[in-house]
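Reminder to self: keep the SMILES exactly as supplied, no canonicalising. Ligand is magnesium ion.
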Amino acid sequence: MKVLNFGSLNYDHVYEVDHFVLPKETMSSLSYSRGFGGKGLNQSIALKKAGLDVYHAGRVGYDGQDFIDYLNSFGVNTAYLVKDPQNASGHARIEVCNAENRIVLYGGTNQLIGEEQINDTLDHFEKGDVLLLQNEISCMKELITAAHEKGMYIAFNTAPMNDAVFTYPLSLIDLFIVNEIEGAGLAGVKSEKIEEIIAGLQKRYPETEIVLTVGAQGSYYIHGKTVIHQDAYPVKAVDTTAAGDTFSGFFLASYLSDKDVKKALDLASRAASITVQGKGAASSIPWMEDLK
Ligand SMILES: Nc1ncnc2c1ncn2[C@@H]1O[C@H](COP(=O)(O)OP(=O)(O)O)[C@@H](O)[C@H]1O
Ligand SMILES: [Mg+2]
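Structure tokens returned for the bound complex:
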């Protein structure tokens, strides 16, 4: 069984400022740093740290070599990551002022993935292999359809949740992984109440496996009438960035190995509780060895 994560990669350009830049103003920033982001990138690193051999497929631009080096430094396989010399990689320009931020996001090469690239990539995978998806790349509909035709097991984290999700062939998804916001959106439920979100998901997707994470309130596995709850590990959270990505990676690694839902929920919660105690994204995700 091979695991393919077809997903986004973004450079985060972070500028610390004493006020947000105004129209006509040119302003110096107080500091600059560049980070690696994109849900796809974080989830590939989580899958790898959870002990799976993962292939990250996607598209980077002329400025994209650093993504490849970064993923490789964790041991993520980038054989199917395409470098596009004509275009810029996905990136975010983030102004940070007094713990508030202002962000301009450019999808770049994440949004230039087309059918040819999808077919070339899926040629290397077969029935029984696993595909993980997030909602930050182009051509999702074609990708889901082609992977399903191959007989791949498809897990879809519908973040960021938007109306485009409903244009995808959702009946072909085997496992949804959502937090409460994505879960409510997917269920078409206005309420923030967890019971109502679960009921909405059960009604709309009675045959699909669903993992719903609800921050410090833990997580649920839902499949038809089956609902299994797992408490979060009580810890002092410092930065919850990548909590959901850690959860996805460790849940999949455990669940795919023996289909034991309770064990997978517990392991994923333990791993995510470590991530929230550290600052940053990929660097705060633990390795499987650290959990033993
Ligand atoms: N404050 C916290 N304390 C302990 N565990 C947490 C905390 N926040 C998140 N987690 C763990 O991480 C999982 C995913 O977090 P969640 O916030 O639901 O995902 P997302 O990052 O996608 O919004 C939770 O189900 C829980 O196990
Ligand atoms: Mg959350």
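Points to follow up:
The mean pLDDT is 97.
Residues 179, 215 surround magnesium ion (ligand 2) (CB under 6 Å).
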